Amino acid sequence: QVQLVESGGGVVQPGRSLRLSCAASGFTFSSYAMHWVRQAPGKGLEWVTVISYDGSNKYYADSVKGRFTISRDNSKNTLYLQMNSLRVEDTAMFYCARDREQLVLGDAFDIWGQGTMVTVSS
Amino acid sequence: DIQMTQSPSSLSASVGDRVTITCRASQGISNWLVWYQQKPEKAPECLIYAASTLQSGVPSRFSGSGSGTDFTLTISSLQPEDFATYYCQQYNSYPYTFGQGTKLEIK
Hints:
Structural class of chain B: mainly beta
Mean pLDDT of chain A: 97
Distance between the termini of chain B: 36 Å
Number of strands of chain A: 11
Order of helices and strands of chain B: EEEEEEEEEEE
Shape of chain B: globular
Structural class of chain A: mainly beta
Largest sheet of chain A: 7 strands, mixed
Oligomer: heterodimer
Strand content of chain B: over 45%
Low-confidence stretches of chain A: none
Strand content of chain A: over 45%
Number of strands of chain B: 11
Largest interface: A-B, 21 and 23 residues
């Protein structure tokens, strides 16, 4: 079945780095734009970044621009989020999510992973 | 950035009630609006996209309307499984932005 599974979360000190992964299965990964969305404990949803289906276009929220990098490996059906210079305020559950339509950059998210928790603390 | 404002922030209702949640965009977004439902400790799920199109598998008691800056999500007859938090989100332009959420609780 269509599935996204995140991994790579954990506890990290401020200023350190972490890389999240999102493994996709059950669909043609290379045809869909992919997003990362985060949710701080007890708070609402915050869109973080998007990458086009072919990796040629990327956009970031101002809060992570210059610190986070989204990438994908279509041969491995995997999405990544490299997070550098982590801050306490980056503490959140990180979800990967898929665009609803193929071959577009910009749509509602129809498939979400279960999330991976990132805690930034000294 | 486009700001999305939901109201109310919380709502108490009973099974069988009709409820409406509103979402306002700070500038026009045509119909590029989606509604998600999130239950505790779970990922969000898409209910309605393009402001009024029901996602496959979503019960018909959910409906959406609106265009431009003002949108509504209506649940025609609340069921026990509908008690959750609801978010609107615009996908007209980056950065995508969410409303702050509406927590629907049992009265």
